[in-house]
Amino acid sequence: MPHADRSLWLERAAGRRYAPLAEDLEVDVAIVGGGIVGTTLALLLSQHGKRVTLLEARGIGTGATGNSTAKAVVHQGFNFARLIDSLGLEDATRVVNGDRAALDVLLHWSRELGVEDAARPVWGWSWATNEDGQATLEGERAAAVQLGIEARWATEEDATLGIAALGVPDQLLVEPNVLLDAFAARAAEQGVLIHEGTRVTDVSLDDDEPIALTTDTGAVVRAGVVVLATQVPIVDRTLAFAGCTYRRSHVVALHVDDGTFATDDMHTGIDSGGLSLRPGTALDGSPLLVVAGHGHDLKSDEDGTHIDQLVTAARELTGAGELHSSWLAHDAFPNDGNSYIGPTGIDDRLYIATGFGGWGLARGVAAATTITARLVRGHEEFHDAFDAKRLGGLVTTDALKEGVKTVKALVGDRIFTDDPDSVTQLAPGHGTVVRFGTSSVAVARDTAGELHAVEAACTHLGCLVRHDAERGSWQCPCHGSRFDLQGQVLAGPATKPLEPVELPQELRTPAPGS
Prior knowledge:
Elements: E1 25-32, H1 36-45, E2 52-55, E3 71-72, H2 79-87, H3 89-112, E4 119-128, H4 131-146, E5 152-155, E6 164-174, H5 176-189, E7 193-195, E8 200-204, E9 211-215, E10 220-228, E11 244-255, E12 266-269, E13 276-281, E14 287-297, H6 306-318, E15 323-334, E16 340-343, E17 350-354, H7 360-377, H8 383-386, H9 391-394, H10 401-415, E18 431-436, E19 439-445, E20 451-455, E21 466-468, E22 473-475, E23 482-483, E24 489-491
Parallel strand pairs: 1-2, 1-10, 2-7, 4-12, 10-17
Antiparallel strand pairs: 3-6, 4-6, 5-6, 8-9, 9-10, 11-14, 11-15, 12-13, 13-14, 16-17, 18-19, 19-20, 21-22, 22-23, 23-24
């Protein structure tokens, strides 16, 4: 039986407040995506007299930002050492400084806008449970010194969890939807044209004309600059999809009972399961413990067991109580370990911000400040470390190894689709992909037993979708697009729905046992 697919943070979402785009627009900057990047960027650009529109397919903060673990951090696990190994000390320092500056931006605006509780400074701890993990943390401690980061070492006697822990102060526990609602409201007050319920379906690039954005409302936006702030850019020609690998983590909010591990800080395990913990609060004010973990790539089927497994592991570690809510966090991990932020190689007027690798809140704000600096002043402090144009050099034979998995999903999976007769055996809450002649069709029964059939090829790049039993939806195993059972887009980079398919009458049988 699926668990409630709604994040704790979306309980505080204000709902749609901005009308869909009803008429053509011409602006200086068009921002596509109303998450942490797009909404922060709209706020910052509104300070500088730019004519800006923000287009969000669903509602502000309802995508990756509203389905995150809601931690804005510069440190988690052992990323300091990995950054230095990957980028060298100079660029690693730039990246960390960019993230630290992003936390300052979040703190400033939360206080400026009167929602200071939506960005609360705490300690961020990484803990180890064995000697190998402790050695890793000791290396991380040395990397922190190289990067000029204040860090606190805790041994088994004073560590909250594990046999050793490394803590970094002034990390932020965020209420993302409260924060983004305030950001959007101030941006709108200062002239930004915000339109929710407006999905961009096409981007037309012409050297002699403004960039044209076609939307599903029928209106067209023409802009001098376009920023794709959609986690994975919706324009395939950026090659960003081939510069990243993709993973999902499950997140649960559990009630805090007597005897439950209680904390005001955030904690990330680096071994033995690597669970991530932070406190939360239900709408009725009762305390919750938010636990994330059990990450996997997009090729792993959501078979209905992941949430139960995570809840069991969380209870064994913390003694937490009943499940309050559960959701999925989806992350794009850049192949060279660093994000892609800035103008692309295909057109200097087209900007992307992607590859945050689990650091979406801090890195997303860093992306917004970086792009603002370039658009307003013509440069930005962190440009070299984040340069999106390096994508062209990264999409090499080695980088495209992940593409082999995509090809398997594009071609190989078509060999292993089910026989059409399997549709008659589908139980409520289950789905499959079947072959009808040369076509692949995604067929599922909802929990009421009604059959739904749609074309199975994702409208982004054509990978075959897979059924997510825990969420009652379809997901693309290549780049993370999600669709409801009727084929409507729930999450990009896909911009178009899966087309409905009429099943033969002989397959439209009642659910088994009904």
